[in-house]
UniProtKB/TrEMBL annotation:
Pfam families: PAP2 (PF01569). The chain crosses the membrane at residues 12-31, 64-84, 89-107, 127-152, 159-178, 190-210. InterPro entries: PAP2/HPO (IPR000326), PAP2/HPO_sf (IPR036938). It comes from Lactobacillus acetotolerans. This is Phospholipid phosphatase. The keyword Transmembrane applies. Keywords: Membrane, Transmembrane, Transmembrane helix. The lineage of its organism: Bacteria, Bacillati, Bacillota, Bacilli, Lactobacillales. Residues 89-202 form the Phosphatidic acid phosphatase type 2/haloperoxidase domain.
Amino acid sequence: MINTKRPPRDTLIPGTIFLIIYTIWAILVSSGSQFIHNFDNIIINIICNSNTANIKFATIFTNLGNTNVIVIETIILFIILLVFKQYAYAFYTAGTMAAANGYNWIIKHAIERHRPFVHHLVYASGYSFPSGHSVGSATLFGILIVLTILLVKSKTFKSILIIFWTCFPLLIGYTRVYTHVHYPSDVLGGWIEGITFVLIGYSFLYHFYLEPKWKTIYQS
């Protein structure tokens, strides 16, 4: 039986809204806003402690968001999609990840925010805003959420996967603050940036692949 169900609608408008929010957030960070300073202090006081178990978890789990790990995971996902002949989804994945991480590099060097001036629990180099771990994980797992919505038929399994994919970038962001290598505003900025690229990337996928495919099936 041919699936004639219309795909999720275009996300250009929410993507644009997230882009505006991200731009405002980046301006506040780069200008040294007192609001950002207060926000960072409040979240740090809530999250950070000297619990041994938390330290061990954070210092280990944070490595799962390293750039090389995210790149390997992206390549594996890309290859799997190609093997199953999901070419549009494969290039949506690769293009969105490349755009998000490339843009992240540009913003980091444009703002040049230094990392927290405290002892880091893990090694970290480069500038602080936005958090590359947060951008990479939010983008990759945001893509996985989109693919899950599009490809998984079982509602129960779909819900479980979406919850799992959502938890991963949240935990990665938590570890970046806990290990003192990022401010909370870096992490939030990274999440917003990642979501922005996922939404805008899906908009291209929708207009150039999903909608034309649906119209062809529906009209046949």
